[in-house]
Amino acid sequence: MYDVVIIGGGPCGLSTGLALQEKGLSYVIIEKEAIVNSIVNCPLHMTFYSTSDRLEIGNIPFLSQDVRPNRTELLKYYRLVTERQEINIKCYQKVNSISKNAASFTVHAEDRNGNTIPYEAKMIVIATGIFDTPRQLGVDGDNLAKVSHYYKEGHLYYGQHVTVVGGKNSAIEAAIDLYRNGAKVTLIHRGETVLEGIKPSLLLDMRNLLKKGKIDFHPNSSIAAIDESTIRINSSDGTVTLQNDYVFSLIGYQPNISLLQSIGIQTDLSSLVPSFNQETYESNVKNVFLSGVVTGGITNRVYIEDGRFHGMKIANEIAQRLSYVQSNL
């Protein structure tokens, strides 16, 4: 029996574990992949827009070579924190279900060998983030092997016809990197422009590439269908068929709504923001708390920089609540 089971081993889940540890509470973090898996899925050579101090957890300093760390530095930092602080985390265990008992919860996890492992706790913190659940295109062919929702690096796509769908930082960064690695890049965006609201470090490059026609840009457009050698798009010029070898659908991510709803957590249907107390981060289900990016739904208003502080409030509330229970036994 743990005081708390934390579901999700991203930065916000780790931060919550550290906060509980500081309060002397017993906990375990269950992560279905590697620690900070959302960062693992980032491009190999990515430099983060946030400064290193805004990505720190547990009051442990993070010093990077430059003001803004790269992916390798950030992964190393979170590994070191996990090891040195002896964070209790179980990786490669997927949570399949949560059941409510009389005075506790049982979290049913499954390891990579198919073994079921039950974890019992007085309270639960869900810190699953959103990056493990990509938003789908919802068109014919979007389940083909050539369609990916994560971008790693461009070298593999030299000389290939590659379509990037999206207009935010991740899509723009992928399109630029693909072009630099010799791919023939098509960029599709439902909006009028991709030059608004992106990182300043990307803006100049993208503006120049579009101006010179180095990237084939289709604004006000959407994917209609995908097959093995082409894509069909709906654009202001009508339906257009383009040669295509690979598609990167980088249109955003969303919370694992099925897990939340399975235990009765209410969710706004349009924003996918779950119901929770803004002060304690307790959901509408008693003794079930939410931490990190998952609290923002698809609004893109909550990031690591904000979510890393949720654990402190959660730990304070749980410590007070369990202390009250113990004093009344």
Automatic annotation (TrEMBL):
Keywords: Flavoprotein, Oxidoreductase. Its EC number is 1.8.1.9. The keyword Zinc-finger does not apply. Its cofactor is FAD. It comes from the Bacteria. One of its GO terms (molecular function) is thioredoxin-disulfide reductase (NADPH) activity. Pfam families: Pyr_redox_3. PANTHER family: THIOREDOXIN REDUCTASE 1-RELATED-RELATED. This is Thioredoxin reductase (NADPH). It comes from Sporosarcina psychrophila.
